[in-house]
Amino acid sequence: MSERWDESEAARQPDELALRVYSSRLLGRDPSLVLHGGGNTSVKLRETDVLGDEHEVLYVKGSGWDLESIQAGGFAPVRLDYLRRLASLERLSDAQMVSELATHVMRAGAPAPSVEAILHALLPHRYVDHTHADLLLAVTNTADGARRITEIYGTDVVVIPYVMPGFDLARACAREYARQAHAGTQGMVLMNHGIFSFGDTARESYERMIALVARAEAYLARHATDRRVRRAPPVAASVTRAQVAALRRALSAAAGKPLLLSIHSDEGFLAFAQRSDVALVSQQGTATPDHVLRTKRLPLLGGDVERYVADYRQYFERQAARAGRPLRMLDPAPRVVLDPAFGLGCAGRSVREMVIVRDIYAHTIDVIEASTALGGFQALSEADLFDVEYWDLEQAKLGRGGAPRPFAGEVGLVTGAASGIGRACVDALLARGAAVIALDVDPAVTTLFGRQDVLGVACDVTDPAACANALDAGVQAFGGLDLLVLNAGVFPGGTRIESLSDADWARVMRVNVDANLALLRDCHPLLRLAQRGGRVVVIGSKNVPAPGPGAAAYSASKAALTQLARVAALEWASDGIRVNILHPNAVFDTALWSEAVLAARAAQYGISVAQYRTNNLLKVEVCSRDVAELAAEMCGSLFDKVTGAQLPVDGGNERVI
Ligand code: ZN
Questions:
Q1: Cystine design at 434: which of 189, 207, 429, 449 (Cβ 3.0–4.6 Å)?
Q2: Which residues of the chain form CATH 3.40.50.720?
């Protein structure tokens, strides 16, 4: 455990709430303490309202905030006297508790207070910190965890047997605190859940947290009996793109909606998946209850998704009958996959969800390995974890989302993605919730988008090895391919046929036709596994229906590409893959058109640049974004029953009409 307190930085904090933010972030910076929204902190302050009345206020972490990045606005101010009175009730349903918390917040627009707010209110100390420290989970998730906790802490902490989070836990903590606490009490251990520390200053509470967790660390170091023989580093077996895509398809079918899948073959994940006792240690349950909401109770071991779903259904029926309330089964798709061939797979509706699953499982492995070294990992019972998984409050929270994202869980691939129409296509797919593999010959594509749901790969589409590598990387990152936008192309300057060289002709054909044939061929095994059917959009050109003089190679190449796409529409309809074609014209905000080229062309026709830009029947300027939005819509439900279509995007052209 490393202690990160910096007194000079702490001294710079203007008030106690700022100090609360500072030390919360210190905890949040250590993923072995809190992970993705786990844990919470609070401070009790005295404030005067506009009428001059004084109140005690509990500032407690609001839901939806991570300790790592929390700001003052992320704390919900709740009336402390009211919270303490609530705690004196014998019973309070969790739904009612949430309602009471929300209606006693003292600032409009504040986030919903943590469901552990009452627990924070009950502790008499000014500062309260709560984490799900891996090291505590490792000790408490063992057969004799309670004995070990006493061995580590003696009476320095209050020990709470496991109770599900919510009002009952707050009551249990109040009861046990009253019974066990004394002047020297420094914290509270919640079995199979986490740890609280508290103090009169931010520093005292923070440093107690670190010191308490460090004692668990020292205990583990002394008592770990695992003497595993060092083996050679684990090796991933070769898994094909189609195998990964098939697994993703099966997971999506189980979920009833498309899921992304990422594959992680790092040494630690592979070694865990290849443990001889993996079936035993991985099938116990999660390390702390709230992980069950993100990862499901158990990982899928090996590739039999149908069997996993059948087991899940039995688990649900068994536990729903016990719980005795009407419940609807959640989507039963596993979110964690362990496979000795490739290590760890993480499934999610978004890249963010997958990242959370990966991080949680990485820490779960740490906990399991540490517990195993103490003699055996033993998670909460199936019933306890079920109660959290089917906790109505959490269900409501998970269901909350923003605007509908029609391509959530889907993967797009766009060529020529670093500029112009391609870049706009990436944006249009992202805006609809897809993750995108962005290919471009320009290496800038690797950093251009700067977000985790875009995998930018520098790739010359005429290089088969580079394309294969790009597809490998794309499948490893997102699990497959649903949407393919073939946009990359070259447009050489005007050359009449009598001066057109074989080399120039061949180069245009290589990029505009051959490369797209190769990509279509390589993407087909992935597209046919897309849960909602693969969709391909080919960026053609006005030059297909209306070629221009001086553009023989370009016009011929786009005509060949169009014909290729039409045959693909014929051949792949039986695989559920739709292939449609857009024919843009005069899209000037692309890399092909510099201001100088535009001015020269306008002069050639004897019109102004402005006239040249809108030189079509509707007198409108056609932009990259217009083409990209249409390309994205062609992948959407509006075009569900359309394949092999060719659509001009050109503001109207007499020669095309
Ligand atoms: Zn907790």
A1: 429
A2: 411-587+623-649
| CB proximity list for 526: less than 8 A, separation 6 or greater | 241, 242, 245, 471, 475, 480, 481, 534
Is the pLDDT confidence value at 134 over 70? yes
pLDDT at residue 226, as a whole number: 60
Predicted confidence at residue 229, as pLDDT, reads 55
The CATH number of domain 241-390 is 3.40.1410.10: no
CATH (residue range 411-587+623-649) = 3.40.50.720
| Span 97-126, pLDDT tens digits | 999 999 999 999 999 999 899 999 999 999
Confidence of residue 626 (pLDDT cuts 50, 70, 90): very high
Helices (H), 104-201: 117-122, 134-140, 145-153, 167-180
pLDDT digits (tens, 9 = 90+) for 360-400: 999 999 999 999 999 899 999 999 999 999 987 665 555 55
Backbone angles phi, psi at 47, to 5 degrees: -135, 150
CATH number given to 7-223:
3.40.225.10
Find the 196 Cα to ligand 1 centroid distance in Å: 9
Cα–Cα distance between 103 and 113 in angstroms, integer?
10
For the chain, residues classed under CATH 3.40.225.10 are: 7-223, 241-390
Exactly one of 153, 177, 390, 554 is catalytic; which is it?
554
Q: How far is the CA of 288 from the centre of ligand 1 (A)?
A: 8
* Spatial distance between the Cα atoms of 183 and 205, rounded to a whole number of angstroms: 15
How close is the Cα of 216 to the center of ligand 1, in Å? Answer: 18
State the Rg of the chain over Cα.
30
The encoded tokens of residue 619 equal 């007198």
| Statement: the pTM of the whole predicted model exceeds 0.85 | yes
Interval between CA 182 and ligand 1 midpoint (Å) = 23
pLDDT tens-digit map of 573-606: 999 999 999 999 989 888 777 888 888 888 888 9
Task: Go through 637-650 and write b for each residue having 16 or more CB atoms within 10 A of its CB, e for each that does not.
Answer: eebeeebeeebbbb
Strands (E), 5-91: 40-48, 54-61, 75-79
Q: Is position 554 annotated as part of the catalytic site? A: yes
